[in-house]
Each structure stands twice: as structure tokens, then as C-alpha cells.
ATP phosphoribosyltransferase (Spirosoma arboris), 286 residues
Amino acid sequence: MSSVLRIALQKNGRLSEDSYQLFKECGIRFDYGTGKLKSISSNFPAEFLFLRDDDIPGYVEDGVADLGIVGENVAVETGRPVTTIHKLGFSKCRLSIAVPRGVDWTGIQHLDGKNIATSYPNLLGKYLAEQGVQAEIHEISGSVEIAPSIGLAEAVCDIVSSGSTLLSNGLKEVETIFRSEAILIARPELDADKQSLVDKLLFRIKSVQAAKNNKYIVLNAPNHALDQITALLPGMKSPTVTPLATEGWSSVHSVLNENEFWENIEAIRAAGAEGILVIPIEKMIY
Ligand SMILES: Nc1ncnc2c1ncn2[C@@H]1O[C@H](COP(=O)(O)OP(=O)(O)OP(=O)(O)O)[C@@H](O)[C@H]1O
Ligand SMILES: O=P(O)(O)OC[C@H]1O[C@H](OP(=O)(O)OP(=O)(O)O)[C@H](O)[C@@H]1O
Ligand SMILES: [Mg+2]
């Protein structure tokens, strides 16, 4: 029988939508959200398992799944010997210590002898040990931010993104101990057939990510400024330059990285470019 990759995804939570969307953009179709906990792709040799995120590193270690998507925070917290094969750039968040807003925070030593509620006892324990702080870690599995207001702990250590959960629970963020994003993890030893499927999948994921980070640019440039403008638009190999019907002008086509976008566009306009079109790219194959 030919190989089928088993891929574990979070059933329902902060990782789910972006994980499903990533496979969709990679052209891999499967059913989800129907209540079924397993689904076979109709056009790629993969079977998807829908699980609680905390269980995913363990399933990948045990070989129940070959690949999984989890937050780096969960992968590190569980300490399972799985391989991180790619960072996915979504579900970005941080693990932070927070205390009631009225606390006069003077530094991490403030936590000496205190109780801290968290779902991340290993990450927190390691951080406190590094800082030389002796505190009591109180492990709870959810709704951590409620702990100070019900007298369970003097501080919390939990996931923060916008900060609105802290705010609405009267807490303030005082120390960030870990930064996280979604990652693709794999079983350390995959056979050659499965490894070649993983390579195919990674190729697609990288093409989708590259496309998201770049824009296709089309503009009109006066010929006297072509050298200056094309130097700002190196593209994948080099820009395409074709003459316009209007004498003395050319059309320039290229690709520009999102991070350099605004700065370069200003310089390109200043050099005399006109009619600049910025077009999203669907896939980008190097
Ligand atoms: N507010 C947030 N913004 C961005 N990413 C987040 C946020 N909260 C959590 N994450 C990331 O998404 C992962 C899953 O978060 P979620 O809250 O869905 O977990 P959960 O409640 O433990 O889910 P499950 O029911 O699967 O156990 C976290 O481990 C973290 O990496
Ligand atoms: O800084 P914010 O943008 O407010 O995000 C942080 C909150 O998001 C997560 O919980 P989630 O809403 O996923 O609910 P959960 O407790 O059920 O996991 C996390 O555990 C925090 O409580
Ligand atoms: Mg969970």
C-alpha cells in the first residue's frame, strides 16, 4: 500500500482556522467542521486527525500522527522529542507573567514566596529557576486570568496576544517569558516514502508563504529613470522591462517583498514612476 501522511490539527481553537486555510491554499482538500474526528484528503495522500492541541506532540512522538500543527509554547511545554520542521507565522502570541493592576511591580524578585497560576508549569519553572526566584506554581488548565481575583494566586503566567483578557480581568503584563507562533512538527524518523510526501507538502507551504510576503508590481517609468527604478525592484531574477507605445517610457514588472514595500514604493515614485499597480500573488515558486 502506498504511504499516507497522518496530520494532526487542533479540532477547534486558536490554531484551527489558519491551519485549515493553509492546507486549502496548498491545494489539499479535506472535510472539517462536520463533527468527524478524521478526514481523508480527496487529492493528496494525507489523513487529518482533529485533536486537542495539548495532545498533538504526544501523538506525533508516538507515531499515531506523522505531522502536527501546534503552538511552539505547547511543543516546548510538553517536552516531547519531536522535530520542528517549519514555522508557520500564524497564532503569534507570548507567554507572560501578569499581576493585579494595583501592584507596585519592582521586578521579578517580587514573586519570591508568591503563588503563580499557570497552564505552563515547565516553561514557568525553568524561567523562575533561571531568575533565581522561589515561587509556588499552581497548575490550572484554563481561565488562568481569574486566579488573582478569587484568591487562588498572586500572579498568573498565561498566553497574551492583544492583552484584552488581562485588561478585562484587572491584570497587567510585567514579564514576557516566551514568544510563540504555530509550527509544523514531525516524528523524528519518517520512512523514505513519508519523507518525500513531507518534502512535497513543505514545498507547497513555502510557496504559499513566499507569495503572501511578496507583491507583484507593474509601473510606468520614464526611460531616463529606468536604471534607478529597476535597482529598487530586483525581483526574483531581474525585472521585466518593455517599451510603452508612448515614446520615452517603459513598463516595468517585478516582485517586491512586503517588508520593503512602503520604503521602496516612495523611492520609486520619487524617481518618476507613474501608474503603479500592486497585485497580490497566489503562489510563488522559486
Ligand atoms: N489569543 C491568542 N492569539 C494568538 N494565538 C493564541 C492565542 N491564544 C492562544 N494562542 C495560540 O494558539 C494555541 C491554541 O490556543 P487555544 O486557546 O485554542 O488552546 P486550548 O484552549 O488549549 O485548545 P484545546 O481545546 O485544543 O486544548 C496556543 O497554544 C497558542 O500557541
Ligand atoms: O491577549 P488576548 O488577545 O486577550 O488573548 C489571550 C487569551 O487567549 C487565549 O484564550 P482563548 O480566548 O483562546 O480561550 P481559552 O482560555 O478557552 O483557551 C489565552 O489563553 C488567553 O486567555
Ligand atoms: Mg489545549
About this structure: The mean pLDDT is 96. The chain has eight helices and 15 strands. The helical segments are 16-25, 56-62, 72-78, 121-131, 164-168, 192-212, 226-231, 261-270. Residues 93-179 form a domain with the D-Maltodextrin-Binding Protein; domain 2 fold (CATH 3.40.190.10).
